[in-house]
Amino acid sequence: MREIFKKQFQEELDLLEIKLEDNQIDQFYDYFEILVEWNKVMNLTTIIEMEEVITKHFADSLSLVKAVKDLSEKEYKIIDVGTGAGFPGIPLKIVFPQLNITLMDSLNKKVKFLNEVIDKLGLDGIQAIHGRAEDMGRDVKYRGQYDLCLSRAVANLSTLSEYCVPFVKVGGSFIPYKSGKIEEELGAAKHAVFLLGGKVEGLETFLLPGTDAERSLVLIRKNSETSGKYPRKAGLPSKEPLK
Ligand code: SAM
Question: Molecular function (GO) terms listed (predicted)?
Fold first, then answer.
């Protein structure tokens, strides 16, 4: 199984032009095994078949290389909001060990899983925290502290911007992983992004390597401090997205 995994994953890595050492590929395989094992007793992901985990979780997480070209050189401080079972944060940490990554999720059982993965894979410079974005984004320990905020499959872009932009330093970026009708979503969220101190500066749309699944990475630059009004209290950003 490990050998088949390595061969299939290597094909994805080649398409993304990412080169890894054997021990890093082993870390991905160990992560896959822990994911499958824990998923038997808790609902972490519906994607569990090996080939799909490789394309839809691992390669998709790593597709950030298409939007951020200097990931291998910089010691970026990154927060992954609503990370779930660790996507995209853990794959990025395995490939780019110099990154400092905070994984955040509102479900404590997922944080327990993340700590197990961090421990078993021997990762450092990565921490999993339990909390809601709306609360953590008001905490001075996290607010305005990150070069990059990433988030995949958590909320619509307006809601997600209110969760995420407060974490970013002025000059840093929020990069949501999006799929579907992105132009429409961008139009609906444009004013929200502006209210939060951000500006949409770029969009990378591509097919996930080796699949016909479309992925868009939106580059939202933070140009000014987020007003103290945001994020609003827990629940409001999703109930009444900023317009
Ligand atoms: N990012 C992962 C992925 O792409 O596989 C997980 C996506 S899962 C569909 C959404 C995750 O966001 C869940 O784990 C959920 O607990 C978390 N979440 C939802 N709302 C949140 C909030 N307000 N603050 C923090 N985490 C949140």
Answer: rRNA (guanine-N7-)-methyltransferase activity
Torsion of CA 159, 162, 167, 169, to 10 degrees: 120
C-alpha distance from residue 239 to each of 25, 160, 235, 242 (Å): 41, 12, 6, 10
Model confidence pLDDT, tens digit, residues 85-94: 999 999 999 9
| Chain position carrying tokens 């999006």 | 178
Q: Is residue 89 part of a domain?
A: yes
> 222: domain range?
70-239
To the question of whether residue 152 is assigned a binding role by annotation, the answer is yes
> Is residue 140 situated within a structural domain?
yes
Query: Two tokens at 220?
Result: 């939202």
Q: Which residue's CA is minimally distant from atom 13 of ligand 1?
A: 84
Nearest CA to ligand 1 atom 10: 154
Phi-psi region of 17 (alpha: psi -120 to 50; beta: other; left: phi over 0): left
Structure tokens at 209: 């390597």
The predicted structure's pLDDT at residue 36: 97
Tally of structural domains, the chain: 1
CA dihedral 78, 123, 128, 140 (to 10 degrees): -50
Mean pLDDT of 14-41: 97
Question: Does residue 167 have a known ligand-binding role?
Answer: no
In a domain, 39, yes or no: no
| Residue 219 predicted with pLDDT over 90 | yes
Alpha-carbon torsion 51, 176, 170, 111, what sign? negative
The whole-number pLDDT of residue 8 equals 96
| Predicted local confidence at residue 1, as pLDDT | 85
Q: Residue 217 belongs to a domain with what CATH number?
A: 3.40.50.150
The finding on whether 82 has its CB within 6 A of some atom of ligand 1 is yes
β-sheet bridge partners, residue 177: 152, 217
